[in-house]
Amino acid sequence: MSDERRERRIRVRASGSYDVVVGRGLIGRVGELVRDAEAAEGRSLDGTCLVVSDDNVGPLYADAACASLRAAGFDAHDVRMPAGEATKCLARYGELLGAAADAGLTRSGLVVALGGGVIGDLAGFVAATYMRGCRLVQVATSLLAMVDSSVGGKTAIDLPQGKNLAGAFLQPDLVVCDLDALRTLPASFLSDGTGEVVKYGIMCDPELFAWLDAPVMGQEGRVVARCVAIKRDVVEADEREAGERKRLNLGHTVGHAIERCSGYTIPHGHAVAAGCAIMARACAARGLCAGEDAARIVRMIAGHGLPTTTTYGADELYAAALHDKKRVGDGMDVVLVRGVGATEIRRVSLPELREIIEEGL
Residues 6 or more apart from 90 whose CB is under 8 A from it? Predict the structure, then answer.
């Protein structure tokens, strides 16, 4: 079996321990995988589950996932939401809570988030809060969800005032990354996920960064597994984002500001990629990062069809960044680029944050 065909398991040990399974043909086996995971951990489920997807993913995979769950003895209820960031809102959250109650879900019931980052965050927040918490399985179908949002226990919805402002931590019971799902992703979605992959390379892994001289597809198994392992290590060291986990926010302060300024029409991975390029240039301008490394970062981002800047000005981005949840009083925790594979978390004043944004544009 070739390296790209083999199944990989990455163990995460946080407030809850679970496996991230990376392989092919996994959506059709999700019921079996869930039952095996519950048996291995000595947990029991009552058999009722809510399978949440959207109107892009649902037509492709919901029937197969529900059939697998039913074959494993679950009473699976198929619920589909509109696709897009706008679905991560209070109204849709309320709808899903109602759907869980209508399905007869209990605290030992299961929410299955079948989709990308939006569905994972939304369905995860439902699982974290319905009856003060029930079981959750993340079945990631996008590259971004596989390498980032499905792992680590963050769940959230957006408020009109900003992104991910209402949320909770809930570690899943299992994460399933079916690499075959990447074959059905539009090119723009693959590119979007690559924005987060590049972030990991810049953040702490020069070898992963070097891998990205080639396209992700063709090496997706090792890329997803490496990114999951990096995030696993960070989450195990700092589950609640008191320190080291903030490093995962590289590119996100400016990236979230870009998303907000665009009315969330610019997707997350594209915005983060632009945020990483802006931060690399700003750090080079401040003498914190070698100019050659900053140029490599910008070339890598551009080479994957991702933006390296934005049409929004420093004042617009700064105003949007003030709503970021990483703000602490009159300061902001930002992740500075010190080179390819090297970053630093630093609290900067708000005036300095504006200067950094302007220097990076």
Answer: 157, 159, 166
